[in-house]
Amino acid sequence: MRPISCATVRLRLERSAPAVLRLRWYVDGVLVGEKRAHESTTLIRVPLERDEHTTCTIEIHDDRDVADRRRLMTTRTVVALRGGWTVEATAELARGASISGTVARADGLARFATVRAESADGVSVETRTDGRGEFTLAGLPAGPLVVSAAGRRLVSTPQVVPTVAGRPTWCTFVLSEPAPDPAPAPMRVGGALRGTVVDRDGGEPEWAAIVEVRDSRGLLLARTRTDRNGTFVVGGSLARSAGLTLVVRSGPGRIAVDTAVRRGVSVGEGQLADVGTVRLPRTPRRAPLLPLHPRASTAAMRLPATRV
Fold first, then answer.
1. Please, what's the b/e burial string for 15-31 (b: 16 or more CB within 10 A of its CB; e: otherwise)?
2. In Å, what is the CA distance from 4 to each residue of 29, 58, 84, 87, 250?
3. What strand order describes the sheet that includes 210-214?
4. What are the chain's domains?
5. pTM exceeds 0.70 for this model
6. Which end of the chain has fewer CB atoms at under 10 Å, N or C?
């Protein structure tokens, strides 16, 4: 077992204004740790095996309320790590953009509705309206954001709101009943084939024989095995066709693999077509080859005694 060590990130936090920050760091999309930082430099430790390589994503959030217009913009930093090593990194937090507005319903303002803003890189901020239906989202990244509102089974149409760092943006949302789900497509029932597989000579049912349905190009459409009575049902989702091929191969009860093919099988949509009895030929056993040379024999030999 390789020894467990830590990779250390010495992160320098450059703020445009004093703020308490909340840090979260992830490895392979899994949250590894979380802490608050007051100072300008903080240490982040990630457990790694010695000399193991990975990348760590660090998210830095301003810990102030989401409605505080002084809130700094959330930022992300990706750092390459190696077990037992210490790396330097810097994160800059600037003044963020803000969005304010109201959320209304058909009968008035929507109190305590949820408002959510999301950027293209997945950073999202969420808040609720107050008793007057008003909201403020601060510390947002600059650029176009997708903003939506919802509350009490009502939703708004999402809006793309352009934002500028340090400047507030105003928008209004109206909640309404969500659009009904589209009617599901009618269920289509496919066809299937049934029949019986028996031995061609003795008429005994063939147990565990392989039954395949193939199209005119030889592509496999369905496959099954017979039961102990030699019967089978194969398919269930076959489309209407008149040029199918039924291929039957012997099961584990035979030494050789015997095959029977029936072409031109037809099936309709939602139809269970009966193909009748399929007689599977049996490969005759070959007699073992006799040796071409006589069997070797041994005989005892007595050598004359010799005196020296």
1. beeebebbbebbbeeee
2. 21, 22, 9, 18, 56
3. 220-225, 210-214, 241-249, 259-267
4. 4-93 (2.60.40.10), 97-174 (2.60.40.1120), 191-280 (2.60.40.10)
5. no
6. C
Reported as a pLDDT band with limits 50, 70 and 90, residue 306 is low
User: What is the residue whose two structure tokens read 């760092």?
Assistant: 165
Bridge partners of 54, per DSSP, are 81
DSSP 135-177: EEEEEEPSEEEEEEEEETTEE---EEEEEBTTBEEEEEEE-BP
248 exposure class (CB count in 10 Å sphere: 0-12, 13-18, 19+):
buried
The pLDDT tens digits of the residues spanning 147-174 come to 999 988 899 999 999 998 888 899 999 9
Q: At a CB cut-off of 8 Å and minimum separation 6, what does 131 contact?
A: 111, 112
| Residue 126 to residue 162: CA distance in whole angstroms | 17
Beta pairing partners, 213: 222, 246
Query: 80 forms bridges with which residues in the sheet?
Result: 55
| Cβ–Cβ < 8 Å for 161, 89 | no
In 83-230, beta strands by DSSP E: 86-93, 97-105, 108-109, 114-118, 124-128, 134-140, 143-151, 154-155, 159-163, 168-174, 191-199, 210-214, 220-225
Pair of tokens at residue 56:
């760590």
How many whole angstroms separate alpha carbon 234 and alpha carbon 223?
A: 6
Residues 195-242 have pLDDT tens digits of 999 998 878 899 999 999 999 888 999 999 999 999 999 988 888 888
DSSP SS3 for 263: strand
Side chain identity, residue 279: R
Q: The tokens of 150 are what?
A: 């919802």
